[in-house]
Amino acid sequence: MTPLGTDSTPPDPIKTNNDVSAPGPERNAAGGSGTSNVTAQAILRAAAKVFARVGYDAATVREIAAEAKCGKPMIYYYFKDKAGLARELLLVPILELTARIEQLLAQPLDPVERLERIVGAIVALDRDDDLDRMRFAFATLFSPLNAGFRDQIDKSSCRLIELVDQACQPLVESGRLDPSRRPHLVAAIRGIITVRMLDWLFSNQPSSPELIRRDLELLLYGGLRSEPESGDSPPIER
């Protein structure tokens, strides 16, 4: 059954392409990137609002055009279809972030500094655009609808976690991390990323490189003193 207010045709499948520079829905007829155009940016913001409000499946190009105050042909010109809009909003930023992290992994950095930069880059992804894009992303990840679209987001997100895991390997090789604790470290870093994104999304509390550094320091080196300082409460007995 087609939801009320939606197009009668089924949603277009979202296509992925690891080469974000290749021609795709976000490229205009002149061969340039649609997102470099002011009109295209307005369309993307409008699409993010509509997707966040009603979801990808229920959203229509007509609603997006009305929100952007432009004609439907303009959307087709810059993004080809609704799938192109969703890809530009969610998949393209993740693919570009993946490329940046792969570059960090190739650089001769201290392992802890590399982790700080990688986690900071992932957390900063949510501030590249407005809140509606992140609401759309979270709704996609936690909604049972449009499983095909979510699967593609999941695959891209899993690649980011694989890269975080790779960034932890030098800590093992240098003897600074017990190999058996590596999965737990990766899980804890995922927790930091999620919490910091949620802080920004729901509490408008942006993270910073310094905050990420302190998060990782607490995670890697611990924050409890072996003995309480004068005036502190005594340690809890087991």
Automatic annotation (TrEMBL):
This is Transcriptional regulator, TetR family. GO terms for molecular function: DNA-binding transcription factor activity; transcription cis-regulatory region binding. Residues 1-20 have a biased composition (Polar residues). Residues 1-35 are annotated as: Disordered. InterPro entries: Homeodomain-like_sf (IPR009057), HTH-type_TetR-like_transc_reg (IPR050109), HTH_TetR (IPR001647), Tet_transcr_reg_TetR-rel_C_sf (IPR036271). Residues 60-79 bind DNA. Keywords: DNA-binding, Transcription, Transcription regulation. Pfam families: TetR_N. Residues 37-97 form the HTH tetR-type domain. Gene3D superfamilies: Tetracycline Repressor, domain 2. The keyword Transcription applies.
